[in-house]
Amino acid sequence: MPLLDALLRDFRADTGTPLAPLRERAAANARRRGLPTVRDENWKYTDLGALTLAPPAVATTPTPGLADIPFAADSAARIVFVNGHYAPTLSALDALPSGLRLRALSDVLREEPAALNSLFERCAADDAPVFDALNVAFAHDGALLEVAADCAVAGTVVVAFISAGAAQRGHSAPQLLVRLGARSRLALLEVHHGREGAANLINALTDIDAAAGSELVHYRLADEAPDANHIGSVRLRAGRDSSLTSYSLAFGGRLTRMEIHAALAEPGAHITLNGLFVAGAGQHVDHQTFIDHQAPHTTSEELYKGLADDDGRGVFRGKVLVRAGAQKISAKQASHNLLLSATAEIDTKPELEIYADDVACAHGATVGQIDDDTVFYLQSRGIPLAEARALLTFGFAQQVIEQIAYAPLRAWLTSALAGRADVPLPTLLEEET
Amino acid sequence: MLKIENLHVEVEGKPILRGIDLELPSGQVHAIMGPNGSGKSTLAHVIAGKPGYTVTQGSVTYNGKDLLALEPEQRAGEGVFLAFQYPLEIPGVNNVYMLKAALNGIRKYRGLPEMDAVQFLNLVKTKTKIVGLKESLLNRPVNQGFSGGEKKRNEVFQMSVLEPSLAVLDETDSGLDIDALRIVAEGVNQLRDPGRAFLVVTHYQRLLDYIVPDVVHVLAQGRIVKSGPRELALELEERGYDWLLPAAVA
Residue A360's beta-bridge partner residues? Predict the structure, then answer.
């Protein structure tokens, strides 16, 4: 059965609940429009045609415990979802810093559904992306994170979506809503982690609204199970003088698609989008970013790094739009990619669309291989060939990793890269002081 | 002892070295001088094992071992070190990480246990002082953003940590002003030792004012056309290379 039919077969509108009409409309839109195909510019390199929804997984994996939740030990505030459902016993919401409100959407849907109305309306609109529509049609849980004005949240808040083998069905549609009050500050790690035999389609939606003067660091790590497919959409709205930094990190899964739409809606807003992905054997990783300079005096920076090994396939498409009247814009974009085998492939496509004249934009894109002369330099120092290549691969990724302030995530990424290499890299795992 | 016999080397079918014979005993410093294109750097690269060169005849042995049969990292394990004319920049790879991987690679080759972090850091600190490398460069990516002088000093620093028994210096003086040259040369001189041999490849004799060689060899058109004491370098400075070229001799 085609993927969309299989998905919609399970659709239940929850008739009688306030959001049911919007769910109905979103599902109808998705049915009417169909899934994107490679004829859509946004999906040119990612073919969903072969994607099917496997029957529900058999519950072979035990229910995850705290030890199975990445970063659980390093998070003061934490909300965890297992197979799309809030898991109170794995979450840590008792001692939230003042000014931080963190709730499960299943509770919000029951108690205060109006809070979700505008998001559902937007995603149920006729022209909304199909996966956004599918997300709201099926979304029944996730996190709503609100930071009060002038509140600086200490530490890094972790929102973890765990897919385990006990999935009731092969599909989940989690949501993460972030509402930053004026001049508030937050560091947030959104992690999607799949365990062997986990749900085979995760269609996640993250919606972030950053009010004037707020600051956000958003780490988004997709590390799905080997057979899982992850489609993640991040919608950001940056208000006046706000500053958002985003890290899109893709490691696991068979297909990982990460899409970011960032609207620089008011003057003074700044956004940094960084990304790092590894596409190994049988993996396909597609990053799409769209930076929309709607207001004058807005700035953006972007650095994406991609690694592909074996027959891994990577895609980066970065669009920057400067709207008419949006003067005094600075936009920098770089996409650098490293192919580690002859059969790996990465396609990178920067796009600038500029309708204003007082604009400084720069972009650069490269796809290359490990430099032989540099390998020889390391070998001549006594470093064996395989280790020299691993060291250079690590060095390539390091330029993104070293910018990450949250040390447990740096360590996770470093060991994930070392795990990918054929040789142990113990010397790399220490942090020099 | 490094022993090179009748070494012929081609690059993409073009002969570059055409019968080199050279013996470099432990504890000595030999200079290789010669005009541009004479094959000096090729000789240095072939000793270190850089890919892209085809040895068509002859041999290179070090302490009785056939160097040409070894991978570059194995040659490093045997005690060979090449100081690059153009040290490479490696973004994202910390200078000290790299050096630790190198030292432990060599120790592993020799069947020695890895050096622990504390020992290693002490070693690095000591050597940094000896060669006068700025400590701030230690935790920077290898050679990235280093000045020309800092890159060459970093080469000498790596050499002092790895303690090779055969150091090949490929035009270490190129691109250095006289002060930087003196500092780099002092670093090299501090490493002079009865158990260590140096092969100093240079175009100009000025480096040899600071690193005084035991023997000077003149390489021209792929052959050693003359060998002599250090005074030969001074003569070359005065008379140039033309009088030694095979065409002029003939």
Answer: A330
Name the token pair of A274.
């960084």
Residue B115 sits at the chain A interface (C-beta within 8 Å): no
**CB B213 within 8 Å of CB B241:** no
DSSP A115: G
Pair of tokens at residue B196: 């260590």
Average model confidence (pLDDT) for chain B? 93
How far apart (Å, rounded) are the C-alpha atoms in residues B65 and A75?
56
pLDDT of A75 reads 82
CA distances (Å), A357 to each of A298, A325, A329, B6, in order? 14, 9, 9, 67
User: How does A282-311 read in b/e, with b if 16+ C-beta sit within 10 Å?
Assistant: ebbbbbbbbbbbbbbbbbbbbbbbbbbbeb
Task: Tell how far CA B166 is from the center of its chain.
Answer: 8
The region that residue B171 occupies, defined by phi over 0 for left and psi between -120 and 50 for alpha, beta otherwise, is left
For residue A421, pLDDT beyond 80: no
Domain region containing B72: 2-249
Number of domains in chain B: 1
- Rounding to the nearest 10 degrees, give the CA dihedral for residues A9, A11, A16, A21: -110
Q: If we measure between CA atoms, which residue out of A233, A301, A304 comes closest to residue A270?
A: A301
Chain B residues closer than 8 Å to A396 by CB = 91-92
- Between strands B141-142 and B90-94, the pairing is antiparallel
pLDDT tens figures, A334-354:
999 999 999 999 999 999 999
CATH number at residue B114: 3.40.50.300
pLDDT digits (tens, 9 = 90+) for A21-30: 999 999 999 9
Q: How many CB pairs under 8 A join A and B?
A: 96
User: Could you give the 3-state DSSP secondary structure of residue B110?
Assistant: coil
Asked if A397's CB is within 8 angstroms of B104's CB, the reply is: no
ipTM reported for the complex, 2 dp = 0.96
Preferred mutation among A380, A393, A396, A410 to probe B, highest tally of B CBs within 10 A: A380
Helix axes A385-401, B95-109, angle to 10 degrees: 160
Q: What is the CA radius of gyration of chain A?
A: 21
Considering only CB atoms, A385 lies closest to which of B71, B91, B96, namely: B71
Q: B224 pLDDT exceeds 60?
A: yes
Pairwise CA distance, residues A224 & B218, whole Å: 63
Give the domain ranges of chain A: 3-266, 372-433
Contacts of A395 in chain B (CB under 8 A): 90-93, 141
Instruction: Indicate the residue of B92, B117, B162 with minimum beta-carbon distance to A396.
Output: B92
Q: Which strand ranges, in their side-by-side order, compose the sheet holding B65-66?
A: B14-24, B2-11, B54-62, B65-66
Q: Where is average pLDDT lowest: A243-247, A328-332, A421-425, B232-236?
A: A421-425
